[in-house]
């Protein structure tokens, strides 16, 4: 018997593809005035930006992917599934809370921070403390991934403060956060529970 439904692999696999293709398309639409290494993804989603509609659609779809994946990830601890689903909800909220073209926004920044935090802590919250857990849900793996995502968040904040490579840090972090649910679902699909009948 499968631990997760097949569609969880589809929803989790679509998330990184949507995210990366979305920001690449929005960057192309924006033109040479946008520098992806130093400028954040939020600038692509500013109302009136050439790629606004692309990023809005991507964020809504990304949120839906995380929600579906959380729903289908039955072997994970409930707290982790809730955190992943809530991370999906923040992506949808972010789609309707773009950064203003005039500069920073407390509301936008708060939503981004909540989303990054939820997607950084969900692996450790989803960990299953039994020997037969799929590798993606084992405590040591989950803690390591959450620590690395936390370090990625710290790198992003540092680059923002230094006016450095914030775009690069953000892309690395968001890519990792969108890929990890896929890795966990794949580990569940490949896992054979020794307690289940053959």
UniProtKB/TrEMBL annotation:
Identify the keywords attached in UniProt to this record, alphabetized.
Answer: Membrane, Transmembrane, Transmembrane helix
Zinc-finger among the record's keywords? no
Q: Which residues cross the membrane?
A: 52-71, 78-99, 105-128, 140-158
Short name of any one Pfam family annotated for the protein: DUF998
**Where are the annotated coiled coils located?**
none
Against InterPro entries, the record matches this protein to: DUF998
Task: Please give the name of this protein.
Answer: DUF998 domain-containing protein
Organism for this UniProt entry:
Streptomyces meridianus
